[in-house]
Amino acid sequence: MMGKSHFIISTGLTVSIMTMAGVPVTSAAVVAAAVSSLLPDIDEPNSILVSKTLSEPILRILQTIMLGAVVWILWKGLFGMPWDLGIAVAVVFVAFLPLRSLRKVVMCLIGVGIMIYGREISPWNYMGGSLLIICTFLPHRGLTHTIYGTAAWTALLYGTTAHTGNSIWFAGGVSYLLHLLADSLTNRGVRLLPPLKWRLRFNLMSTGTRKGSAVENVCILLTIIITGLVFLPKLTGG
């Protein structure tokens, strides 16, 4: 299923479920739902979440900085030969990777940064950083599209935000799970409990096809209807 469909369906249904369950719908919870609606696809560098966060202009800036760093290292002789030359070659190699591969490298480095500089929220920084690093090596619809991935993300949100109430971790966990359920409509389905080979698969569509677009549009319409039925009485004072 396309990213924009995941965003609308998971976010809309999550805030509706929260309202019906009596869980406060805060702005932070809506943001958590929106991010979590796309988060399972973090294992795909060209997914809407990763490609918008690490957009091509941002990557071009990073490439420029890396090439500037190469010039600086060689000019200043910071580490001495042959280390300067070796580091320069490695940085140039990374800088000229295809955008898809470069995104994976940057994601991995961000994960390392979170682990090193997020010590004030330890041990959650190690969990979050490790998950981000691991995701760079996973195939699409792998670990992030499982019950384990859902539980890990929900636990991470709970551990870091439970002191503010139950809105954020609830919204994130539900929205993440709804993403998996939406992907179960596709012909590939989702393998929720590896190493078990069983897949949750309804085989109603294939992403990117005309039939797939029609199914996604129906799901979006149903989401809008459900959200309207939940919130309209509140808006009208009913």
SSE order, as H and E? HHHHHHHHHH
- Beta-strand percent range: under 5%
First CA to last CA: what distance?
35 Å
Please give the number of β-strands.
0
**Which bin fits the share of residues in helices?**
55-70%
Q: Unreliable segments (pLDDT under 50, ≥5 consecutive)?
A: none
Decide which structural class fits the backbone: mainly alpha
- Outline the biggest β-sheet: none
The averaged pLDDT comes out at 90
**Radius of gyration from the alpha-carbon trace, in angstroms:** 21 Å
User: How would the global form be characterised?
Assistant: globular
Helical segment count: 10
Describe what you observe in this structure.
67% of the residues lie in helices and 0% in strands. With 238 residues, the protein is mainly alpha-helical. The model has no long low-confidence stretch (mean pLDDT 90).
Outline the secondary-structure elements.
Layout: H1 3-21, H2 27-38, H3 48-53, H4 56-76, H5 83-95, H6 99-117, H7 124-135, H8 147-161, H9 167-183, H10 210-235
Provide a brief overview of the structure.
Helix 1 packs across helix 9, helix 2 packs parallel to helix 9 and helix 8 runs antiparallel to helix 9. With 238 residues, the protein is mainly alpha-helical. The longest helix is centred in the last third of the chain and has 26 residues.
